[in-house]
């Protein structure tokens, strides 16, 4: 377990003291005061995420023995310091006098190092308890709390709430209860929920954009997910049938008048203009049939954009309503939490069924 005492918070610049409420960024391991993290809204070093850099406590090389004897050992971290040092050059711990005498002393600031350097560990639960039934501390990263051979340590243990206090309420529901419903990927969803409810700031959800109704069914939003999935399915079937039986034959007929086999040759700009002129002489019904693939694609893209923009908001509202409904139907806190745990999470069975249906639909044009 890393003791951050003496390290400065990168937001307020004040050193962490014993007993401070500290959370760490799940991406890079930077420690913050909880209030500072919530004020910033996210890690202030987010531009470094994904670059292979992690936060590392300051490292000071051992002093040159030719200059001064390094015989003043810090009782807190074991670092060797010059004999005349008043404070540890590694952690800032006072080397003379009582700790209260030097409570406001200056400390060194943490810095970033490449991820091949040993990183800090965070074994202490910043909330004093976990909505996931872990008790008062995180599980040790190596089963027994021992690092692998060679002394290499993993970066900090992630915060399952993404910096959100489980006691914070969203429309009267504690964030910890919502985490019991979400279960999967809570470090992403809990800050998103909090920002939406408190500041009306949304965040684009790329999973919802790519999978639309399927993502909603996966997240157990069955009503809206079923409607959108049904709409997309009908759209796909209608588009496939019309395209195979009408759009392609009409298009081939038009380009055959120009002397082009559209299935073998890609027309150039002028040939496309000629085809458009020929198409203008057809009936309105034939023109609509030729335009069906483009219309269907635009509708599908519009649904995907809607899900990407509104997905997190819809999911937040869904979780809050579900938590209130479960609370009204249960008696006692334990029964309430058990129901949240059993009815939350994701539905993998629906996901597998959708994947199978998708593969079958890909074969549909071969039989039309």
UniProtKB/TrEMBL annotation:
* Highest taxon in the source lineage: Bacteria
Keyword terms of this UniProt record: Membrane, Metal-binding, Transmembrane, Transmembrane helix, Zinc, Zinc-finger
Q: What residue spans carry the region label Disordered?
A: 99-154
Output compositional bias ranges, type Low complexity. 118-129, 143-153
Residues crossing the lipid bilayer are 224-248, 287-306, 345-364
InterPro entries listed in its UniProt record: DUF2628, RING_finger_1_prok, Zinc_ribbon_dom, Znf_FYVE_PHD, Znf_RanBP2
Q: Name one GO molecular function term.
A: zinc ion binding
CDD domains in the record? PHD_SF
Q: What is this protein called?
A: DUF2628 domain-containing protein
Species assigned in the record: Candidatus Gallacutalibacter pullicola
* Lineage of the organism: Bacteria, Bacillati, Bacillota, Clostridia, Eubacteriales
């Amino acid at each position: 377990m890393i003791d951050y005492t003496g390290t400065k918070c990168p937001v307020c610049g004040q050193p962490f003291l014993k007993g401070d409420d500290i959370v760490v960024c799940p991406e890079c391991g930077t420690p913050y005061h909880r209030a500072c993290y919530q004020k910033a809204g996210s890690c202030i070093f987010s531009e470094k995420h994904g670059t292979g850099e992690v936060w590392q406590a300051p490292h000071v090389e051992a002093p040159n023995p030719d200059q001064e004897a390094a015989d003043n050992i810090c009782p807190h971290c074991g670092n060797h310091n010059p004999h005349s040092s008043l404070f540890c050059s590694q952690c800032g711990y006072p080397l003379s006098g009582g700790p209260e005498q030097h409570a406001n002393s200056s400390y060194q600031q943490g810095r970033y190092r490449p991820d091949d350097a040993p990183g800090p560990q965070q074994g202490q639960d910043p909330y004093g308890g976990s909505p996931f039934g872990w008790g008062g501390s995180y599980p040790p990263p190596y089963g027994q709390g021992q690092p692998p051979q060679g002394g290499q340590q993993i970066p900090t243990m992630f915060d399952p709430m993404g910096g959100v206090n489980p006691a914070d309420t969203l429309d009267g529901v504690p964030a910890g209860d919502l985490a019991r419903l979400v279960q999967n990927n809570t470090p992403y969803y809990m800050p998103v929920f909090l920002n939406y409810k408190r500041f009306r700031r949304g965040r684009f959800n790329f999973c919802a954009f790519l999978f639309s109704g399927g993502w909603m069914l996966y997240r157990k939003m069955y009503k809206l997910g079923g409607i959108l999935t049904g709409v997309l399915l009908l759209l796909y079937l209608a588009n496939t049938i019309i395209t195979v039986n009408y759009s392609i034959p009409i298009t081939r007929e038009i380009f055959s008048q120009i002397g082009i086999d559209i299935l073998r040759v890609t027309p150039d700009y002028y040939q496309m203009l000629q085809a458009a002129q020929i198409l203008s002489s057809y009936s309105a019904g034939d023109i609509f049939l030729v335009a069906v693939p483009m219309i269907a694609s635009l509708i599908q893209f519009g649904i995907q954009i809607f899900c990407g923009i509104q997905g997190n908001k819809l999911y937040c509202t869904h979780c809050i309503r579900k938590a209130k409904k479960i609370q009204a139907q249960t008696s006692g806190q334990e029964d309430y939490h058990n129901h949240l745990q059993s009815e939350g999470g994701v539905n993998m069975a629906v996901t597998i069924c959708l994947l199978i249906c998708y593969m079958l639909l890909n074969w549909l044009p071969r039989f039309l």
